[in-house]
Amino acid sequence: MWSDEQGSASRRFFYSAVFWLLVPGLIGLFLATFLYVPSFYDNLPLVVKPYLSFGRLRPTHVNIMIFGWLSQAYAGAILFILPRLTRTRLYSERLAHVNWWLWNLMMVGAAITLPLGLTQGREYAEMIWPLDLLAVLNWGLLAVNIWVTVMRRREPKIYVSLWNFMAATIVFIPVYMVGTKIWDPGGAYTGMTDNIVNYFYVHNLFNSWFTTAGVGLALYLLPKLTGKPLYSHRLALWGLWSVWAGQHHQLYSAAPDWLEYLTVVFSILAVVPTTAFIVNFFMTMRGSWNRVRDDVALRFLATGAIFWGLTCVQGVAQSFRTFSLLVHFTNWTVGHSHLAFVADYTFWAFALIYVMVPQLAHRPLHSRKLMEWHYWLITLGMTLFMAALWIAGVIQGLDWMSGRIPFLETVQAMHPLFGARLLGGLMAGAGVLCFVYNIWQTARRPQTAPAVALVGGGGE
User: Fold this and answer.
1) 53-103 pLDDT, tens per residue?
2) How far apart are the first and last CA of the chain?
3) Assigned domain for 2 exists
4) For residues 182 and 133, what is the distance between their CA atoms, to the nearest angstrom?
5) Is the residue at 459 inside a domain?
6) What is the pTM of this model?
7) Is 460 part of any domain?
8) CA triplet 122, 125, 131: central angle to 5 degrees?
9) Burial label, 177 (beta-carbon count in 10 A; 0-12, 13-18, 19+)
10) What's the CATH code of the domain at 333?
11) Is residue 122 assigned to a domain?
């Protein structure tokens, strides 16, 4: 339970992340089915209806996806990378195991309480107060392992990924504490202040944790898979501080205009770190694109980077008041959030797991063919899924702004697009099953040297 074996905690984080990925995936398919075939929900037994209602399943889907799957995959990758970039042992493998137990205790608590309707009722901050305390403790323990390992390093230079990891944990902790009002069990502010703070938290959950740490992970893996040094360390440092205010989500709200304008400016300034990362990524990839054909992990990483660039372009576009007026409160924003969490951050997590798990488990990856099926199913499925939602969002926005089309007609126009969304979700779900089965079979194989050829230049 408290092994001091190097890499054992990282391996555990990866395995539990893979397990938790199944839960929001299944819930997401239920929700997509309810939207496309409402009678499916109507015909459920009355005893289970409250627990499968949209208002309870949606926060369960979101929180387990964010904190159970993606955050644990990040934690596993960071713990894997730290000793390799510092040339020293992780500060405390046993502390990392404590971190793992507490993290999964938090996720079990969320998986039980949210379907029961025990929630603080604030977007992306639905977990109840005791689970909020566990979340802060978990990121605190991870921060201790990161910062102390870096301080005890034997490598004199600090690679930019380490700066990203240190910044991500230190910035995210106060963001989470303020966003969830950690000092108050009720977890909410008064009036419009609560709305403003909630969307400060929602946007910076992306930027301070998933983007800052995620870019650090991508900048570590890219040179490993291409066999080339990073194009520009200076560009990577320019892109490090990408934590911008997120009040542009509340344009045309009761928030003061000066605050809306100020955060629009900061949102537009996100072009700087976005451009820095994209230029760095593509210049490092120059001359290595032929590797993408045979190296599925590199293909996931590159595809995720392309999707990430699109995410940032959409984010800047949505900060303009005219475009926000068209797409806000429509299905466009649902497609945008899935673009970020699934099509780029999750794609990076897939690449990290394919590279790192065989090394941690000392086993070859089970099947290259399953990797291929996984890539194509989830890439095509998510593209269909997101495109259907973006089209639906534009139709909704244009209909509502016209003031002439009855609301019910707009709802009826969503039906074929919700069907496409469900089909895309089913394809992506089939890809996830290929991934989970592949990792499970890899973990069950007899221990040997990992088959590096399957994942490119991921070896040390």
Assistant:
1) 999 999 999 999 999 999 999 999 999 999 999 999 999 999 999 999 999
2) 27
3) no
4) 7
5) no
6) 0.95
7) no
8) 130
9) middle
10) 1.20.210.10
11) yes
